[in-house]
Write a structure and sequence with these properties.
Blueprint: H1 2-13, E1 20-25, E2 30-35, H2 38-41, H3 48-60, E3 68-74, H4 78-87, E4 91-96, E5 121-123, H5 128-153
Parallel strand pairs: 3-4, 4-5
Antiparallel strand pairs: 1-2, 1-3
Protein name: tRNA-specific adenosine deaminase
Organism: Rodentibacter heidelbergensis
Keywords: Hydrolase, Metal-binding, tRNA processing, Zinc
Amino acid sequence: MRHALSLADKAEALGEIPVGAVLVDSEGNILGEGWNLSIIENDPTAHAEIVALRHAAKKAQNYRLLNTTLYVTLEPCTMCAGAILHSRIQRLVFGAPDYKTGAVGSRFHFFDDYQMNHSVEITGGVLAQECGEKLSAFFRRRRVEKKAEKIKNNP
């Protein structure tokens, strides 16, 4: 999770929401990593998880990422949960809950449907306070910046 947090810093440096993700194999080797790129790539699917999965799948030359663990600093949304399901990731570990769009327990639980063709082991709340504070600080700073810009443009 610490590595995912460092990847979130890369997103923040680009002006993106600071979320990072890293996919590792059963021996802990990094297969793929990513951070939010939706804003600069004008791509609503460029969430940290999707970027990491794309990177790993290309490296593995396989869309199935069996026997892997995905670490992500924020609870995945529905889109990312779907990608996790389809890539056959074995385990998901996330940091902060996402009470607005979280699909792994906060808003609802995507993987609770017993009819899914794949199950994912889930561990939430790992370094949750640190992950959550990184996001909260980003949005606090962004609100201050937007307010200052509004005052500057409307004296």
